[in-house]
Amino acid sequence: MTDTLSISLAPSQSEKFRTRVLPFLIMAAVLVVIPLTGPSRTTYSLLNAIGINMVFALSYNMLLGRAGLLSFGHAVYFGLGGYAAMHAMQAIETGTGLWSIFPVFALPLVGFAGGALAGAVIGWPSCRRAGIPFAMISLGLAELVAAAGFMFTSLFGGEEGVSGDRMNGPELFGLSLGPINEVYWFIAAWTLIGTVAMFAFTRTPLGKMGEAVRDNPERVEFVGYDPQRVRYLIFIFAGGFAGLAGGMAAVNYEIFTPETLSVIPSGFVLLMAYVGGIRYFAGPMLGAVLLTYMQSNLSDFTEAWLLYLGLLFMMIVMFAPSGLAGVLVSISQGLQSPDRRDILGRWARYAAGALLAFTGIVITIEVAVRESSGFGEVFEPFGFALAPDNPVTWLLALGLVGAGGWVMRSSGSDKEEASS
Amino acid sequence: MSTPALSIRDLTKNFGPAEIIRGVTLDIPPGERHAIIGPNGAGKSTLFNLISGLHRPTSGSVHLGSQKISGRKAHEINRMGLSRSFQVSNIFANMTVRENVRCAVLWSLGTGYSFWRNIGNLKHVQERTAEVLETVGLIDKASLPAASLPYADQRTLEIAITIAGGADVILLDEPTAGMSHSETERAVALIERATRGKTLIIVEHDMSVVFGLSDRISVLVYGEVIASGPPEAIRGDAKVREAYLGDEAEDSPMVEGAA
Q: Is B62 helix (H, G, I), strand (E, B) or coil?
C-alpha cells in the first residue's frame, strides 16, 4: 500500500525524463551540432570561454542559489584549481614520474582536486558562520590569496603567471588539443560532465539538505543534521567544481596569472549567476552565455561596456530578481495562461518602455564617454550628430528616459503581480 | 521502577542577571503524556530550548533514558531520539510539503551526508515519507510549496517534521496556538495518533487540550515547577489557581483557551 503511495508522490517516469534527462540530451546535441556550422576561430574561442564560465557559474550557484551562501571569493578556487592543473601540465611536459602517462584531457580532474582541497582548507574556518560573516570572510580570503599569488613567485609565477603547453603527454580520443576546434571538444565534454555532475549533486541527500540549510538552518539541527557540516561539505564540492572550470581554463589558455584569484573574477561569477537567475539550475548557464558574450563582443562596440554590465545587473536586481531564467519562465507561463492576450500586451508595453528608457541611457553614456576620452569625438547614431554641447542631445536623452519610465510605470504594477 | 524517558535535575538558566529557569526537577516515565502549563513568560519555551539543545543550561542536567543530553548539540540530541516542534511554524518554506518531510526522515534512515546516491532512488525514504504524510493527512497536499499552505496545515506539517524521524520522546510547543475550535480538535486527534506509544511533552495554553490529552501536568511559574500531578489534582490545587490564574481571574475557569 505504501508502495503505491510513494509512486503517486514522486513525479512520473515520463515527467522525470522530460525534466531531468531531456535537457541534457538537448545540451549534448547542441554541443555536437555547433562545430557542423563551421564556426570561425573567434567563435570557437568565445564558445570555449562560455563553457568554462558555465561550469564556474554553476559551481558558484551551488553556494549562492542552493545553500544560500554569498561568497565574494569564489575565484580563489577557480584559480587554485587552475594553477594545480597548470603545474600538472608542466609535469606532463617534462614527463616526471606518473605524470608522463597522464593525458592533458584529464587535467580538469586535477583542477577539481585542487579546488576541493582549497575548499576543504579554507572552508573549515569560514563555513562555521553563514550570512554576513561568511560573506566578509570570503572577501578577506580572496584578497589574502590574491596577494599571496603575487608574493609566492615560484608557485604562482608572479606577474607573468605560470604557462604551459597542452600538446604533450598521451592523447585521448585522438585529440592533439593543438587546434582550437580540438580544444572545443575538450571544453564541450567537460562542460557537459560538470553540468550533469552538478545537477546530480542537487538530487543527493547532501544537496537536498543544503537547500534545507538555506531555507532554515535552525530546523535542520532538529532533524538530526549539523548545518555547519552540511555547509562545509557543499563548500568543498563548490570549490571542486570551480577548480574543474579552472582546469578547463588552464588547458584552453595555457596560462594562469594571479589576477585569476582576485575579487574581480569573483565578482564576475556572482554577476553571471545572479543575472542568469540563482533560483533555477540553468540560470547561471544563461548568465554565463550572456555575460561572456558581452565581455568579448560588446567591448568591440563600445569602450563603456562595463557600464552596461553594471546597468544590466542593477536592472536585474531591481526589476527581475529571479534573473533571465525567471523572465523566461514567466514568459512561458504567460503564453500558457488563458488570458495571454492581456498579459502579452502588458509585457509588450513594458518592454517598449524599457527600450525607450534604455535608448536614452545609451545616448547619455555614449555622448559622455566620447566627450571625456574621445578627444571631442561626437556620437553619431544613424547619422544624427549628438554633440555634447547641443541641448537637443540632453533633452532627447532625458525625454527618452522619462517617457520610457512612464510607459513602464503604467504597465509595471500589473506585471509584478503576474510574475510573482 | 524503570528509568524515566526524560529526567531533568536542578535545571537552571540565566540570561545575564535574569534567572529564567530556577531549578526545575522533573521525571517523565516512558509513554506518559505530560503537559507543561503556566502563565506567559513562565519559561516554558526556554525549558524546551534547554531540553532540546537550542540553549545550554547554566547548571543542572537533562538525561534522555540513561544518556546525558544536556550540553550536547541540538542535532546530536535529535539523533539520540528526542524531537521537538516550534511555537512559530519552523518549516522549509521554499520546499514542497513532501520535501519537508523527506528532509526530516533522512537522518533516521541512515542516509547521512551522502552525495553519491540519488534521493529519488532511495525507496525506503520515499516509503517513510509517504507513511508520515498519510499519518498526518497531508498526502493530498504533498506537492504544494510549504509556504502556500494555510496556517493550520503548516502547523500540521510542523508536527509531521517533528515525528518523521521516529523519535521516542516528542516535545510539542503550543501545537494548537492560533487554531480555530474545529482545527484544534483535529490537531489533538492527530497528536494522539502520531504519538501513540511515545513519550509526549507538550506546552499548551488551551486548557481543554491540556486536560483532555495529558496523563500528568506540571505547572511552571517564574521558572519553577510549583505543582506536578494528574489533571484532577492540578485542577483542584489552590496554589496553582492562585499563581497561575492570578487574582483578577479568580472565577475564570481553566477550561478557557488563552490564545
A: strand
Amino acid A376: pLDDT: 67
Task: Answer yes or no: pTM beyond 0.95.
Answer: no
pLDDT digits (tens, 9 = 90+) for B29-38: 999 999 999 8
Widest Cα–Cα separation across chain A:
80
Question: Taking phi first (over 0 means left), then psi (-120 to 50 degrees means alpha), and beta for anything else, what does residue B174 get?
Answer: left
Contacts of B115 in chain A (CB under 8 A): 201, 204-207, 233, 237
Cell of A356: 525607450
Residue among B196, B54, B168 at smallest CA distance from B108 = B168
Share of chain A above pLDDT 90, in %: 45
Q: In the Cβ-directed half-sphere of B18, how many Cα atoms lie within 13 Å?
A: 8
List, for residues B126-137, the tens digit of each pLDDT value. Answer: 889 999 999 898
What CA–CA distance (Å, rounded) separates A209 from A203? Answer: 10
Residue from B54, B86, B106 whose CB has the most chain A CBs within 10 Å, to mutate: B106
Rounded Cα distance, A3 and B142, in Å: 16
What's A73-92 look like in SS3? CCHHHHHHHHHHHHHHHHHH
Residues paired with residue A256 on neighbouring β-strands, in sequence order: A162
Task: State the cell numbers at B201.
Answer: 511533552
- Prediction ipTM score: 0.86
Judge: A6–B113 Cβ closer than 8 Å, yes or no: no
Helices of type H across A95-130: 107-126
Which region holds residue A168: left if phi is over 0, alpha if psi is between -120 and 50, else beta?
A: beta
User: Which is nearest to B204 in space by CA: B159, B237, B142?
Assistant: B159
Strand extents, DSSP E, A17-170: 162-163
* Cβ atoms of residues B5 and B168 within 8 Å: yes
Radius of gyration of chain A (CA): 24
Q: How do the domains of chain B map onto residue ranges?
A: 1-79+206-259
A→B contacts (Cβ < 8 Å), by residue, are 2-3, 5-6, 9-10, 16, 200-201, 203-209, 211-212, 214-216, 218-226, 229-230, 233, 237
Question: What amino acid is encoded at A199 in this protein?
Answer: F
Using the Cβ of B135 and the Cβ atoms of chain A, whether some distance falls under 8 Å is answered with no
Query: Above 60 in pLDDT, residue A6?
Result: no
In this structure, the number of other CB atoms found within 10 A of the CB of residue A286 comes to 22
Query: Which runs of E-coded beta strand occur in A3-138?
Result: none
> What is the CATH topology of the domain spanning A22-309?
ABC transporter involved in vitamin B12 uptake, BtuC (1.10.3470)
The C-alpha atoms of residue A307 and residue A37 are separated, in whole angstroms, by 33
Q: Using CA atoms, how far apart are residues A273 and A68, in angstroms rounded to an integer? A: 13
State residue A173 phi and psi, 5-degree precision.
Answer: 55, 25
**Structural domain boundaries in chain A:** 22-309, 337-419
Which tens digits make up the pLDDT trace of A36-47?
898 888 899 999
CA distance A71 to B113: 22
Q: For the domain with range B1-79+206-259, which CATH number is right: 3.40.1740.10, 3.20.20.140, 3.40.50.1260, 3.40.50.300?
A: 3.40.50.300
The pLDDT value recorded for residue B249 is 46
Measured between alpha carbons, how far apart are the two ends of chain B, in Å? 38
User: How far is B18 from B39, CA to CA, in rounded Å?
Assistant: 17
